[in-house]
Amino acid sequence: MIDQIPSTATIVLSGGTPAAQTASIAGINIAVAFTDQQVVKFYSTAGVQRTGSTYTSATISYADGPSNTLYFSTVLPSDVVVTDYIVVAGASYGAGNSILGIKAWDVNSNTGTIGGLNRNAYPGRLSTPTINLNGAALTPGIAQRAEVLLTRALGPDAESLKSGVWYGPLEQAYAQSNLMYNVQIVNAQEVKGEKTLDMSKRYFSDTFGGRKYHKSPTASANRMDLLLMEN
After folding, report:
1. Integer angstrom CA distances of residue 4 from 31, 45, 103
2. Is the pLDDT of residue 91 over 90?
3. CB under 8 Å, gap of 24 or more: what pairs does 150-159 form?
4. 99 FRET partner, CA 20 to 30 A, in 88, 90, 130, 189?
5. Are 50 and 18 a contacting pair, CB within 8 Å?
6. pLDDT at 202
């Protein structure tokens, strides 16, 4: 699976012009995760492949990252709906047939399975603590809150505490930059010339809470993950 069609997305199954826009899905989560001319297929949340009409797959003509829109040069299966999964053509759908990503491993739960193990047989050991901000803005203290949970989970003497890295999207790096701008102090006496001072830096910070922050345009926009690579 590359992405799940959000419930707020707009799907045009066919009929668009020119040929590169025969069909489209606007409002995808992460359009840059797809590539031009990529062939994909669709599955329902119940794991049933969409095969409406005679079309069982579709070819992406253009993946528009800024607008999070996928344009297709072919008609989409007529039964494609929002919440469907978009899957690499040729992949076998179902548990155990793909490489599990961060969202599969970093789950705050003692139910279900991961890596062939039942989470309820190892309470707490296969569950990832989370901090839910409920849509609120990032604050500097979040790094320390994560440190508290990490230390509780691994113990204060764990060597891996020193090596954790953050992984997340550019949107969260932007939020981190705003934290710095809010406390920035400028000595106006040191400002020369008649032009206003550029208060913005060109690049994002490389760290958050003293840990390396790995920015990715294909990471989910609404989350950050603290990863211990040795773990």
Report:
1. 11, 9, 13
2. no
3. 150/226, 150/228, 153/124, 153/129, 154/228
4. 130
5. no
6. 87
Burial of 192 (0-12, 13-18, 19+ CB in 10 A): exposed
Domain segments of the chain as ranges: 3-88, 129-227
- Is pLDDT at 96 greater than 80 in this prediction? no
Residues present in the chain in total: 231
Q: Note the pLDDT of residue 177.
A: 87
CA-nearest of 91, 85, 2 to 42 is 85
